[in-house]
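Researcher: Next entry in the queue.
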Amino acid sequence: MDVNSIANLATNMAQERTGQAIGVTVLKKALDAQAGSVMSLINALPPTTQNLPPNLGQNVNTTA
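Model: Structure for this entry, 64 residues:
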């Protein structure tokens, strides 16, 4: 291997690392934006005021 090929390899590796770091940052920002959107949708749901018996919904039948 000559010096030029080693330098090219090192440059390509550094560029690849930078590209991956940028991709991860963009992904994190997209996930944060989606989390904010989901929270605003959940908060926009109206509260439920149903007159259900207090025992309803307390048990889950796991043998069905």
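Model: The chain is about 65% helix and 0% strand.
Researcher: Noted, moving on.
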